[in-house]
Amino acid sequence: MSTSAEAVDQIAALFAGEGGAEYLGEPVTQAQHMFQAAALAEREGAAPALVAAALLHDVGHFTGAAHGRDLMAGRDNRHSHQGADWLAAWFGPEVTEPVRLHVAAKRYLCAVEPDYFAELSEASVYTLSAQGGPMSPEEVAEFEAGPFAEDAVRLRRWDEAAKEPDADDPGFEHYRELLTKLVRQ
Length: 185
Hints:
Distance between the termini: 8 Å
Largest sheet: none
Oligomer: single chain
Helix content: 55-70%
Strand content: under 5%
Structural class: mainly alpha
Mean pLDDT: 88
Low-confidence stretches: 65-76
Shape: globular
């Protein structure tokens, strides 16, 4: 197992590398999107683990065998699961499970809040169909029963709001200490 500094350095390298790529049809890069989501979580006073989850929620777009481009081609790349599984090498479920559930939370919100769909960006509307569309009543009940559902919904709201091209949010170094403290030893 790597040290916490090595783990955080590996994550930082992703932000500096693939994080600079276009964010799937949005007017920001992948890294800008994730920095904005974390900044929104921080502004709302979220627990450190949930701030970390907001920061890391989309790492699955570039850590697994499938890529974010697959999602934009209409194939679910299961980036939420890929990212959570990758992050589990270093972080506990308080970080990984909101990451794993953030796509499910979009499907959930579209099912239970009629106005939520109208808040989705054009790219989010497009990917929703590849991700399974709004949840069925059975899926809603199962999602709500999960221990990380509330955190996943909070993360999802920050996710959707984190697409501002002119936002002035802190970069990766702002979150380095927070991540380092959360890495399991």
